[in-house]
Specification:
Radius of gyration: 22 Å
Number of helices: 17
Number of strands: 6
Oligomer: single chain
Distance between the termini: 54 Å
Largest sheet: 3 strands, parallel
Shape: globular
Length: 469
């Protein structure tokens, strides 16, 4: 294993050290060149992707940092005893990439993806190598909880295979949501979407018990057209900023600053989401040409980060409504010690809600509110591990007290964090944990298999609809 880890470091460390935007620029450009895209066009697509990643990161940082201060003021005002600081995704990514095992897990998952492509078990080529840190985090947490590297690797490969299968299952829904042609290659293996099976369980319950709630649904885009500015992303951001500012007891100047920051952030998300779509266009054409010449009609999909869906208004409408709900749940939820700060805008949950419900806002909000406790509990569970690891690699955030625990509220893959904990403890030979781990893994796989069947039904309906048109 140590030799494999060393190889992975030599291959990937120089790329990782560049940062997400330069790394993905190089990766996308090289892949486009492999598919015989003209060098200038390949570089254009790569640069556009790097610009989009930089833009989305800057807006997320601006938004979460503004809301973090407001939430901190809210805590000081109310005296809540939530003693785990939510530092957002960026510090956790830094912490995870600080482990050499992350590069090892990346190499393993690249090999798994290539094997699945060769054996025709997937049509997705996953190029979003930066976000492998979400799954690597699960492996690292399993090791910290007691698993050896082999067991952690098996767990990571198990989840990684399901992630890739899921990217194929979601592809027709992405085309529908984006109103994109069938040859559009964009999909994603992001850990966001591994919550899809659980969301679909609640969506089916909705179908059986609460279908009458759908009559209260609204189309965020149509609402924007009807009410103009007052239903726009600008206005939604202003409403949210005013609400949070009042909770925090801020003065009028601070409230307006928060409101305007939220307003411009939500509008820019939509704009930058289009940049992701534009960046993949040269590669899309290259893949289409390659498939027609070499693969006898077989199409390949490209696994990107999730923000190519960021232009859908439902993501932000649901996230804005879920923000105060999350805050309320954090205050009253037994077993939670994590205060939503960096993760107050629920980007770790709303993209999956959009895909499963296909944009039915009322369902996104209700199901999201039901699921938020899982994220809060998972964030609380991993806090000691995150804190310990941050201190060991010298990445503990400045401005946070040294005796404070850190974590993230809406970290992607909450169910997988529990699997890592159970598998790690089961590796120590405790019968109780072995039973729990086996049952949890079986349940996880069975729910995914059921979800796969339901998504195949949906995809068949998409295909039938296209054949009739």
């Amino acid at each position: 294993m140590s030799a494999i880890i060393e190889i992975a470091n030599k291959i990937f460390q120089p790329l990782i050290d560049l940062g997400a935007a330069p790394m993905m620029t190089i990766v996308l450009t090289l892949i486009a060149l492999v598919f015989k895209v003209k060098p200038s066009r390949a570089l254009e697509g790569g640069l556009k992707l790097g610009i989009a990643i930089t833009g989305i990161g800057a807006i997320i940082d601006m938004l979460t940092s503004s809301f973090s201060q407001a939430m901190a003021d809210f805590v000081a005002r109310t005296g809540l005893s939530l003693n785990i600081t939510d530092v957002g995704w960026a510090p956790l990514a830094t912490i995870t990439w600080g482990s050499p095992y992350t590069l090892y897990f990346l190499l393993v998952l690249v090999i798994v993806n290539v094997i699945m492509l060769i054996w025709k078990k997937t049509n997705t080529l996953d190029v979003d190598i930066f976000d492998v840190w979400h799954l690597a985090f699960v492996g690292l947490f399993a090791i910290w909880s007691g698993a050896n590297l082999l067991i952690a690797t098996v767990l990571v490969v198990f989840i990684g295979i399901l992630k890739i299968i899921n990217s194929d299952l979601m592809k027709p829904t992405f085309n529908d949501l984006l109103d994109a042609p069938e040859n559009n290659p964009m999909t994603t293996t992001h850990m966001n979407y591994m919550m899809n099976p659980i969301i679909m369980v609640f969506d089916k319950i909705f179908d059986k018990i609460f279908p009458w709630l759908d009559k209260y649904d609204f189309d965020a885009a149509k609402l924007n057209n009807k009410v103009g500015f007052w239903g726009s992303k600008f206005a939604i951001g202003i409403y949210l900023g005013i609400f949070v500012g009042l909770l925090a007891g801020q003065n009028p100047t601070e409230i307006f600053e928060l409101a305007f920051t939220a307003a411009v952030s939500l509008e820019l998300f939509s704009l930058i989401g289009q940049w992701f779509i534009d960046s993949i266009e040269p590669l899309s054409q290259g893949i289409t040409d390659f498939a027609s010449k070499r693969l006898k009609g077989r199409t390949l999909n490209i696994g990107l980060d999730w923000p190519f869906l960021a232009g859908r208004a439902e993501i932000w409408a649901a996230a804005n409504i879920l923000a105060p709900i999350m805050l309320l749940e954090a205050v009253i939820l037994p077993g939670n010690y994590l205060l939503p700060l960096g993760g107050i805008i629920a980007m770790g949950i709303t993209p999956a809600l959009l895909v499963v419900t296909r944009g039915i806002i009322i369902r996104m909000i209700v199901i999201g509110a039901i699921e938020l406790p899982v994220f809060l509990w998972a964030g609380t569970l991993v806090a000691p591990f995150v804190t310990n690891m941050a201190k060991n690699i010298g990445a503990f955030p400045e401005g946070v007290a040294s005796n404070q625990l850190i974590s993230q509220t809406t970290m992607e893959g909450p169910m997988e964090k529990f699997l890592g904990y159970l598998v790690g403890n089961a590796s120590q030979g405790e019968i109780e944990f072995i039973i729990y781990a086996v049952l949890a893994l079986i349940a996880y796989l069975l729910i995914f298999m059921w979800y796969r069947r339901e998504m195949n039904k949906r995809n068949a309906a998409y295909a039938a609809e296209k054949s009739e048109s």
